[in-house]
Amino acid sequence: MKDGMRFVDCDMHVMEPADIFDRYLDPKFKDRVISAPGRAGGASVVIDGFSRSGDDDLQQYRKRSKNVSSNQRQPLSGSRSAPYLGFAIERNYDPVAQVMGMEMEGVDIAVLFPTMGLGLIARNGMDPLLSNALCQAYNNWIADFCSYSPDRLKFAAMLPFHDVTLACRELRRCVTELGAVGSFMRPNLVNGRFWHSNYWEPLYSLHEELNVTWGFHEGTGAWYSNMNTLYGENRFYRHVASHWIEMQQALVAMIIGGVFEFHPNLRVGFLEAQNSWAPGLLSRIEWDYPQYLDTHAPYLSLTPKEYFRRNCWAAVEGSEPEIEATASLIGADRMCISTDYPHFDSNFPNVSNNLVQGVSRETAAAILYGGATLYNFSEADFAKADEARQVQEAATAR
Question: Dihedrals φ, ψ of 37, to 5°?
Fold first, then answer.
């Protein structure tokens, strides 16, 4: 708990080990995947001779502040979380460190997302069978990771979106056999198909059938992201633009394209993009709604804001000055909070402190609890989490 309030971290991250695919990848695909330790822990992966992201190769116009050779990456200027991560680095970001980080923030239950895995299969035209094998390897690894404390550590499954049938099969496996509480997709266009395409209908329906959450989670450097084309080599430019603009386009597709109309029980989280963009976008859609409803979207039966209130949650990261104002427009109960541990731009271990200090207690309680409604956690889930914490505390005290 955080100051007596239930806290679900809707988007906490792991650092995948460098040998993840040596241990977990189907042997038939191992000659196509090379992994090694990354620059800041975790893994760096080359697939079919292709780097997992575009960050390393988009340097031609960088305005360098120091003398760095052309084949080196200019480092980021700073990290908010780095001074506090010694305990995790010492333990190589293992599950024990994950729970230690949760205790530092007051998290009851955390839903885990990858780091390297956000960009692992983020390109068009990828071999669907290889995409599926990589997803299966990650999902098997993260399930083992969560087994350290399964009542407190949950995970969102990585799906091979290069083939919707394979994605459905992997989602069902992850939920029914491994305990996944949802899936995640990047909001980007995939193989020429956006999220209002009928192509995705089976996957939407399966999320409803299994009663699990669909999470949109953007990153930076995906080869298929329009942000690479629009904003080129400047990672600062792309990081700012991708997290908001790609999310906005996904929400437009889900509402205007009728996904929420035809899948009324679909729960969707818009994660790690803050959320002050949401009220303005909803107002913009509603501005055009009367003019276009009959001619371009006659299938819609609710207003855009009603769809959002029924189907959507949007995450904050605790310190945004607009949180209270945004809550007044979309509802604090449609918000959740991500610590983003252990990433460089996270405010860990002060994410929850910043939230509690910046808004009313009523608003803070609703936002801290928001991840529970997004992922459909009940009081029984919190009771199990409490028991797991007590067992861990007793073991530590011995």
Answer: -60, 140
User: What CATH number does the domain containing 226 carry?
Assistant: 3.20.20.140
Q: What is the pTM of this model?
A: 0.92
Residue type at 44 in one-letter notation:
S
pLDDT in tens, 268-293: 999 999 999 999 999 999 999 999 99
Our count of domains for the chain comes to 1
Are the CB atoms for 374 and 10 separated by under 8 Å? Answer: yes
Closest by Cα among 287, 355, 349 to 326: 355
pLDDT band at 52 (very low <50, low <70, confident <90, very high): low
Residue 244 has pLDDT above 90, yes or no: no
- DSSP-based three-state secondary structure for 335: strand
Q: Using one digit for the tens of pLDDT, what is the confidence trace for 251-267? A: 999 999 999 999 999 99
Q: Cis peptide leading into 342, omega within 30 of 0? A: yes
Which pLDDT score, from 0 to 100, does residue 50 have?
A: 73
Residue type, 158: M
What value does the mean pLDDT take over residues 107-112?
A: 98
Q: How far apart are CA 305 and CA 293, in angstroms?
A: 14
Residue 148 confidence class, pLDDT cut points 50, 70, 90: very high
Residue 280 domain-assigned (yes or no):
yes
Residue 71 counted as domain residue? no
Which residue, among 307, 309, 306, 369, has the nearest Cα to 337 in the 3D structure?
A: 369
Q: Is residue 170 part of a domain?
A: yes
Angle at 113 between CA 187 and CA 39, to 5 degrees: 100
Roughly how many angstroms between the first and final C-alpha of the chain, as a whole number?
Answer: 23
Evaluate whether residue 77 is within a structural domain: no
Average pLDDT, the chain: 89
Domain that holds residue 280: 8-62+87-397
Q: Is 72 helix (H, G, I), strand (E, B) or coil?
A: coil
| Residue 338 near residue 12, CB atoms below 8 Å | yes
